[in-house]
């Protein structure tokens, strides 16, 4: 089997030059156009070696190299930096970022081939790669509308991507009217509708991945179709296939569920490792939460998978938490405070608060909460600095962001969140 090389460059011309130098030597070459895309492609194609350009939009080659090195799959695979800037300083930066070799452009095809061959000789395939594990699938659900399901799903997905610096899938299952893409200000280039005509047996990860909308935070959104009638062809069987593919390739898959128990919703619930059942502190929402728990019991859905989240979507007259808990006979795991200004502002600008406010109370609360919902393996290994600092520092990150008001923030913390 030929060895696979992932080549990352934002210039189509440079990609062509590298591909045409390596393909004749018998390598299988796959490409990506920036650092973020490279991280996702690397996870999916598991290349034997990676060649990175430095100056790229979204994420530069050094940052991509550092992140790849932190990932156990790529900590030992050869990485070469290929760049126009051949100064000593840049070479040192490349090696400090974890690259094994550094080559200047323009290059001779023969030299590139020779270096690639030498680097690949040093790598013993599979000996160091950990067994692939399935990602964690988290659904956000409520039978009552408007309680913050989409707000929570988008912040959770962005929080996971930010903490673990790995791509996270966000699946909009509100097939007829979902807003996930809008909440990240992503144009609807492709959606679930593009999967509607593909038979389930022909759906593989690459096909799904191409339909997802990547956001600079690392969240990849599978968006709802722009028109309700386009969603009718999405069958439960297709949902099961797509979710299966996503959980095989993303460490976290977050699902924004609709307020119903239709077949596609039940399929997503069945596939979920954990269901975050959202309610707001008012009587109708509590009553619908009781109804949801009742249906779960009737259909034999395990209560152990269900976590109650109380989202304070209004500022006056809220029912007391203990009264809600005694009505539902179930503890509330997390309370999200009333923070209308922050959420509405975030919505209008397409930047979830967990991203741009990670150092403020609401952002920190959401990030802590995402941490507490992370896989056990991850939780024993918390990164020192959240990824948000790097995201916020990047030139592409919400450069028009208006400053947020830090006053008036309630101090309720997520229960069970990590200290
Ligand atoms: N903790 C909160 N404090 C204040 N406003 C909030 C809070 N959580 C959500 N909101 C606001 O409530 C509104 C509804 O939120 P969202 O769209 O996330 O709910 P939903 O359950 O997904 O609704 P839909 O039924 O439309 O799908 C939004 O304007 C959102 O900004
Ligand atoms: Mg919604």
Characterization of this structure:
The chain is of the alpha/beta class. It is 40% helix and 15% strand. The protein has helices at residues 12-22, 35-45, 61-70, 88-96, 109-121, 149-164, 180-183, 193-196, 205-211, 236-249, 263-271, 283-298, 321-328, 340-349, 353-356, 361-372, 376-379, 388-393; strands at 4-8, 28-32, 49-52, 79-83, 101-104, 136-141, 168-172, 213-214, 219-222, 252-256, 274-279, 306-311, 332-336. Strands 8-9-7-10-6-11-12-13 form an 8-stranded mixed β-sheet, sandwiched between helices. A 5-stranded parallel β-sheet has the order 2-1-3-4-5, sandwiched between helices. Strand 11 (274-279), helix 12 and strand 12 (306-311) form a beta-alpha-beta unit. Helix 1 (12-22) packs across helix 5 and helix 10 runs parallel beside helix 11. The radius of gyration is 23 Å and the shape is elongated. The model is unreliable at 125-131 and 390-419 (pLDDT under 50).
Number of domains: 2
CA radius of gyration: 23 Å
Fraction of residues in β-strands: 5-15%
Biggest pleated sheet: 8 strands, mixed
> Could you name the CATH topology of the largest domain?
Rossmann fold
Distance between the termini: 48 Å
At the first level of CATH, the class of the largest domain is: Alpha Beta
Tertiary shape = elongated
| Number of helical regions | 18
CATH architecture of the largest domain: 3-Layer(aba) Sandwich
Low-confidence stretches are 125-131, 390-419
Mean pLDDT: 86
SS-derived structural category:
alpha/beta
The set of bound ligands, ions and cofactors reads: adenosine-5'-triphosphate, magnesium ion
